[in-house]
Amino acid sequence: MTHLSNYGNDRLGPYTFVHLADFVHSCTNLRLQTLPPVQLARKYFELFPEQRDPLWQNPCDDKRHKDIWSREKTCGHLPRFLVIGPQKTGTTALCLFLLMHPSVASSLPGPQTLEEVQFFNGNNYHKGLDWYMGFFPTPPNASADFLFEKSSSYFHSEDAPKRAASLVPKAKIITILIDPSDRAYSWYQHQRSHGDPAALRFDFHAVVTTGPEAPPELLALQRTCLVPGWYAAHLERWLAHFAASQLLIIDGQQLRSYPATVMDEIQKFLGVTPHYNYSQALTFDPQKGFWCQLLEGGKTRCLGKSKGRKYPPMASESRAFLSSYYRDHNVELAKLLHRLGQPLPAWLRQELQKAR
Ligand SMILES: Nc1ncnc2c1ncn2[C@@H]1O[C@H](COP(=O)(O)OS(=O)(=O)O)[C@@H](OP(=O)(O)O)[C@H]1O
């Protein structure tokens, strides 16, 4: 049984199988039985339930597959790098900046997806490889050959690292970290402006502090506020499947304040050419309060209102609660960054000071 799609549409498998059955039938007393395909599949998965969940591999990794693969299909329709989130850390700004580079292109928006493809983390994965590849420009633009995809919920997904490593094992992975308390608050504001009933009904402090007896919608919101901020645990899962050299951890505060410097670091990490001069191409827009793309004639292209929202600062009691909630996670993150030889972001140093 293989979950590798039959890209060659070859008939060798069924041919061999039918002849083997004929052979067994003619030479033995065994009575072979079969079922219609759907019932047969059901039976198979009853016998082997652990195989229900597919794990797609890259068809081009097997020469035999590659040789018989349709010419219209190419492995160029897979990303060379992934921006994995987490949500609310500046991932959209990073995409805007990346797309300014002439050699970089991203997945296209699709009718069933909003901004993000979200392939590796959820049910879209079961739609298969053709579905996923359909999001990448066809034919791949020869000059923009650094295809990427950004789905910010990959970061904390249990499944995404294993699935991504199986399909695109050589991909580079980019993640952005900000203070997890700020991330949680930004997510809460995001949910409020999207009309999430729990976010509209409960204030932020109630959301993050509520106990397990709370109504399910409040607990669900609490989870999405808090869990992505368990940075070390999520990063360890990615590091179990990708080499440390494939992973770039960006300090979100640096991206926000010094985007050109961060973009230089990213260009180096990706090995993308030609070198693009972000110092000239980005400008700080005082009205937006963020860095934006500088267009001809001095105009700017900034992200829309949903990025860089205006909302009141977090209440100090919520910040104190979250500081304590994230203490152990932050200590683990510091150890992990130390192990990787990476500097600690300013917010993490401050949090560690508080923990002493
Ligand atoms: N240049 C620039 N322009 C606009 N916004 C910027 C920029 N750099 C960083 N940020 C911060 O990005 C936050 C939104 O993060 P994401 O894009 O990752 O959000 S999302 O998960 O895709 O919804 C957004 O969070 P909020 O301030 O809470 O809206 C911003 O603080």
Structural key phrases:
356 residues, alpha/beta, Rossmann fold, five-stranded parallel sheet, three-stranded antiparallel sheet, 17 helices, 8 strands, binds 3'-phosphate-adenosine-5'-phosphate sulfate
Describe the structure.
The mean pLDDT is 92. The chain is built from 17 helices and 8 strands. Helix 7 (180-193) packs across helix 10, helix 11 packs parallel to helix 16 (327-339) and helix 16 packs across helix 17. It has a single domain, classed as P-loop containing nucleotide triphosphate hydrolases (Rossmann fold), CATH 3.40.50. The longest helix has 16 residues, at 12-27. It has helices spanning 12-27, 37-47, 63-68, 91-99, 129-133, 160-167, 180-193, 197-201, 204-209, 216-226, 231-239, 252-257, 259-270, 278-281, 316-325, 327-339, 346-355, and strands spanning 81-85, 104-106, 146-150, 172-177, 247-251, 282-285, 290-294, 300-301. By secondary structure, the chain is α/β, with parallel strands linked by helices. The strands form 2 sheets. It has a 5-stranded parallel sheet, with helices on both faces. The structure holds 3'-phosphate-adenosine-5'-phosphate sulfate. The site of 3'-phosphate-adenosine-5'-phosphate sulfate has 18 residues, from helix 4, helix 7 and strand 7.
CATH architecture: 3-Layer(aba) Sandwich
Give the overall pLDDT as a whole number.
Answer: 92
Distance between the termini: 55 Å
Indicate the radius of gyration in whole angstroms: 24 Å
Q: Please, how many helices? A: 17
User: Describe the biggest sheet?
Assistant: 5 strands, parallel
Helix content: 40-55%
Spell out the CATH superfamily.
Answer: P-loop containing nucleotide triphosphate hydrolases
Q: What is the beta-strand fraction?
A: 5-15%
Shape: globular
Give the tally of structural domains.
1
CATH topology: Rossmann fold
How many runs of DSSP E, i.e. beta strands? 8
User: What structural class is derived from the secondary structure elements?
Assistant: alpha/beta
CATH C-level label: Alpha Beta
Q: What small molecules does the structure contain?
A: 3'-phosphate-adenosine-5'-phosphate sulfate
Q: Which stretches of 5+ consecutive residues score pLDDT under 50?
A: none
Strand arrangement, major sheet? 2-3-1-4-5
Give the H and E element order: HHHEHEHEHEHHHHHEHHHEEEHHH
